[in-house]
From TrEMBL:
The keyword Cell membrane applies. Belongs to the CD36 family. This is Scavenger receptor class B member 1. It is a multi-pass membrane protein. It comes from Seriola lalandi dorsalis.
Length: 439
C-alpha cells in the first residue's frame, strides 16, 4: 500500500486518486449576542452554534505523469449538507460581524478623513451595517449584496469573488490549485512530497524565504517508514503556508498501530515568542496567524478554535469561549510504516480584527479585538471494509510473515542440528565399519 504512485499498482493508485474515506466539514458559528453593546465599547459576547455538517467529496482531475518522476493534478471539492449529522438547519439565523464593513474599515483607516467619510456614506447608501443577521446557508455560500454588485462593477478586483459574498463562497466547486508531487519511483522517501504548487516552488506571501517555503506533502499521505522523530510537514493552500505537526504518542485503531501527530504550540506563535515565525508578521499575540497578505489585505487571522494554545489576552477580550485540547486541538493519526492517515481532524478558526475607525461611524466605539467568527473541522477516518483490508495487510500478513520467518529460522536450525548429528553418527559408525572389514 505504501508503494509509489503508479497506475500499474491499482490498490495504492486508486487510494491516492479517489480517496475511499468519507470526509466531513463541521462548521460552528460564533453567534453574537450583544451587537449594540459592542458598538458602545463593551466586550463581545458570543455563543457557539452548530455543528452544521457537510460531506466533502474530493476528486483529482487532470492527472498527468512527468518524466522526472512527478505527477500533476488538480483536486476539486464539493460540499453537501448533512441534516442528520447537524445540530440545526441551514435556515438557522446567525449574527456575525459584517466583514464588508468592519474589515474594510480597518483596511481604510490610514486613508484621508474625507475618504473615510465617503466610505461610511457608501455603507449607509447600500444599507450595510456593522453586523450581519443571515441564514447559515447565506453566510456559508453567499448572499446578494448591492454593495458587492457596486464594487464588482465599478471597482473590479476589490473583492476576492465576483458573485455572491459568503465565508465559503470560493470553496464549493473549487480546486486547491495545481499540485505537482513526487511519485516515489526513483526514491520512496520522496513519495507524495510537493515539487511545486501552481508552478511555484516557493510562495511570495511572507517576509522571509523560510516562511515562503513549500514543504512536505499535499496533506493526504506521507512517505513510509516514519519514526517518533519524524515530523509531519504539509502545504495548505487555504492557510497560505506550510505547516508541520509533531509526534505526540503511539496508539492503535482496530488493532492497527498508529502514531498521533499534533500541532506544536509554536505553530501560530508570534515572532517574539518563536523567532522562525518572524516571517509571518506583522504579528499580534501568539496563537493567531495574520493571513491578510493572501486574503486581499483584509484583517483576517486564523487560529485554533476558541483560541486554544493562544495568548490568554485573546481569550479575555471575548466572552463565551472555553478552549480544550479534546474538542479544539487538531491531530492526524497515521500508520508509521506506510504514511497513510487512519484518522484525521483538522480544526481551524477564522477571526476578524475589529476596531473603531474615525470617520467610519459604523464602527461606533468598538474596542480593539480579534473577533472569532466561525471555526470548522475537516475530519475523516478509515472504517468498514477499508479498515478490514488495512488490518489484513498491515497487521495480519506482517504477523504471519514474522511467524513464518521464525518458523523458517527454526526449521533451518533444526536442519543444521540434524545434519550435525548425522555427520557425528557417520564419523562414529564409519571407522567401526572399516575395522570390521579389516578383520
Amino acid at each position: 500500500i505504501w508503494r509509489m504512485i503508479d497506475p500499474k499498482n491499482s490498490v495504492s493508485y486508486t487510494m491516492w486518486k479517489d480517496i475511499p474515506v468519507p470526509f466531513y466539514m463541521s462548521v460552528y458559528f460564533f453567534n453574537v449576542l450583544n451587537p449594540k453593546e459592542i458598538l458602545k465599547g463593551e466586550k463581545p459576547m458570543v455563543e457557539q452554534r452548530g455543528p452544521y455538517v457537510y460531506r466533502k467529496r474530493c476528486q483529482k482531475d487532470n492527472v498527468t505523469f512527468h518524466p522526472n518522476n512527478t505527477v500533476s493534478y488538480k483536486e476539486y471539492r464539493r460540499y453537501y449538507f448533512e441534516p442528520s449529522m447537524s445540530a440545526g438547519n441551514e435556515s438557522d439565523i446567525i449574527t456575525i460581524p459584517n466583514m464588508l464593513v468592519l474589515g474594510a474599515a480597518v483596511m481604510m483607516e490610514n486613508l484621508p478623513f474625507a475618504v473615510r467619510l465617503m466610505i461610511s456614506t457608501t455603507f449607509k447608501t447600500f444599507k450595510e451595517g456593522p453586523f450581519l443577521t443571515k441564514t447559515v446557508e447565506e453566510l456559508m455560500w453567499g448572499y446578494d449584496s448591492k454593495l458587492v454588485e457596486f464594487l464588482n462593477k465599478y471597482l473590479p478586483g476589490t473583492l476576492p469573488s465576483t458573485g455572491k459574498f459568503g465565508l465559503f463562497a470560493d470553496f464549493n466547486n473549487s480546486n486547491t490549485g495545481l499540485f505537482t508531487i513526487f511519485t516515489g519511483q526513483d526514491d520512496i522517501r520522496k513519495v507524495h512530497k510537493v515539487d511545486s504548487w501552481n508552478g511555484l516552488t516557493e510562495l511570495n506571501y511572507w517576509r522571509t524565504p523560510q516562511s515562503n517555503m513549500i514543504n512536505g506533502t499535499a496533506g493526504q499521505m506521507w512517505p513510509p517508514f516514519m519514526t517518533k522523530e519524524t515530523t509531519l510537514p504539509f502545504y495548505s493552500p487555504d492557510a497560505c503556508r506550510s505547516m508541520e505537526l509533531v509526534y505526540q504518542r503511539p496508539g492503535e485503531m482496530r488493532g492497527i498501530p498508529l502514531y498521533r501527530y499534533v500541532a506544536p504550540k509554536t505553530l501560530f506563535a508570534n515572532g517574539t515568542d518563536y523567532a522562525p515565525n518572524e516571517g509571518f508578521c506583522p504579528c499580534r499575540q501568539s496563537g493567531i496567524l495574520n493571513v491578510s497578505s493572501c486574503r486581499h489585505n483584509s484583517p483576517v487571522f486564523i487560529s485554533h478554535p476558541h483560541f486554544f494554545n493562544a495568548d490568554p489576552v485573546l481569550l479575555d477580550t471575548v466572552l463565551g469561549l472555553s478552549p480544550n485540547e479534546e474538542e479544539h486541538g487538531l491531530f492526524i493519526d497515521i500508520h508509521p510504516q506506510t504514511g497513510v492517515p487512519l484518522n484525521v481532524s483538522i480544526r481551524l478558526q477564522l477571526n476578524l480584527y475589529m476596531k473603531r475607525v474615525s470617520g467610519i461611524t459604523e464602527t461606533g466605539k468598538i474596542s480593539e479585538v480579534v473577533m472569532p467568527m466561525i471555526w470548522f473541522e475537516e475530519s475523516g477516518y478509515i472504517d468498514g471494509p477499508i479498515v478490514d483490508t488495512f488490518h489484513t495487510n498491515l497487521v495480519v500478513l506482517p504477523a504471519v510473515m514474522e511467524y513464518m520467518q521464525y518458523g523458517f529460522i527454526a526449521l533451518g536450525l533444526a536442519t543444521i542440528v540434524i545434519a550435525a548429528l548425522v555427520r557425528h553418527r557417520l564419523k562414529v559408525t564409519f571407522p567401526r565399519s572399516l575395522k570390521s572389514l579389516r578383520l
